[in-house]
Amino acid sequence: MKKKSRILKQVVEQKSATTGLDRQIRNYLEFLRLEKNLSPQTLVSYKFDFAKYRSYLIHSGVHEASGVTEEHIGKFLATLHRRNLTARSVARILSTIRGFHRYLLGEEEVKDDPTQIIDSPKQEKNLPEVLSIAEVDEILKQPDTSSRLGIRDRAMLETLYATGIRVSELVFLKQSNLKVDDGLILVYGKGSKERLVPIGRSARQWIEEYQKQSRVHLAKAGKSQDYLFLSIRGTKLTRDMIRKLVEKYSLTSGIGKKVHPHTFRHSFATHMLEGGADLRAVQEMLGHADIATTQIYTHVDADRLKNIHRQFHPRP
Length: 316
Prior knowledge:
Order of helices and strands: HHHHHHHHEEEHHHHHH
CATH class of the largest domain: Mainly Alpha
Strand order of the largest sheet: 1-2-3
Helix content: 55-70%
Number of domains: 2
CATH architecture of the largest domain: Orthogonal Bundle
Radius of gyration: 27 Å
Number of strands: 3
Distance between the termini: 69 Å
Largest sheet: 3 strands, antiparallel
């Protein structure tokens, strides 16, 4: 009897594995692979999402995408929440199935999109880690400036904090991009967009020291070109090298925070706004296309004010 039940279950599973829904999912994944050129890793993530979605629909008696309703979508998202998935994970899965239904609508396999009026779950804003001015000063003091590499590292850290540029922009920064007399550097950002960014006196002094005392010895013909920050082999520093150096000096500083190059960018923006800088000016210096991206730093400042209020107000 148990054997018959097992065979019957296998027959049912085989039948459900060849539903119209499976064909539609297969076709959509093939579309993503060929037309959207998604990586194998991304496709694997999509398959995991669809496995959850398919299982729910089959269990609900839906074997074709045309049978999916807004109610199905809502209940499916509710099951994901009950499994304690994060809002970010639920939003990702919804994005996956939204793309699927829009694809089917475009292919005229269905007449409507059941995800159209479904809102993505609200996600908590992950505010960036920010260093205090004292913590920045402590990290900047860590390189051994009696050595050539120490001078290079001090100049590099000073530049990151003084300008708020991205680590990728620092990697490709050239000597010809320095407008020292004007207190500016020319930066090539995302999409090869260029912008002029002010650089303070301290960073300029350390760059000049580095150029005189270190870079002349690190530079190698045919390797260094005009890149500002060089490795011991004479090639430009890589993102990974810079990340490791930043982590090393933050660790030796003893501040107890995990710091990466982007932390200097976050700290630069936050300290500028705390000091009264105009939001639009900070947006321009950071190279943000959308001011909404820059506004996250106003949230950081607001959190700092709330903490101070809780700490010192007699009735917090």
